[in-house]
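Table S2 (text version). Query chain:
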Amino acid sequence: MENTTQKYTNARLLAVQAAYTHALLTECETPADSWEKIVSRFLMGEVGGEVIKDGIAGREEYIPLEAADAKLFTKLTQAVQEREADLDEIIRTNISEKVDYERLELPLKCILKVGLAEFYANPNLDAPIIINEYVDMTRSFFDGPEHKMVNALLDKFARVIRG
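Corresponding structure-token output:
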């Protein structure tokens, strides 16, 4: 029996990977890979779908992800694409005054963007589920307090958008 919850988690991770890919290409001014092309390449399995884990003697190992829910992945990437400027502004205006948006690490920005976008893409999903998914993802990427920022921002946004 397939694990549906894991498929959704993997779809969220792939959406963050796709957002990261798009952001890198945008920074490099590479217009050839549009959102549509990036999403298509992820859906076909040409890119993404792996996680990096520390292996023996400090060597990194690439571990393939199990299947991801393609429908959720597509909804999330579409929501990010449609609202990217708004998502950036929400993050910029709601992070602590002590934190400079431009200095946030790109993976953290992408986690925040996709997490915020999911509130639009999945309006009926309970906010704590969305928040927990992205907080857990942040913990897997960062050892510091970044997960607290993700938790606070997504929680604040959930209250604003969902009342």
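Notes on Table S2: The helical segments are 4-27, 35-43, 70-94, 106-121, 127-141, 146-162. The chain has a mean pLDDT of 88.
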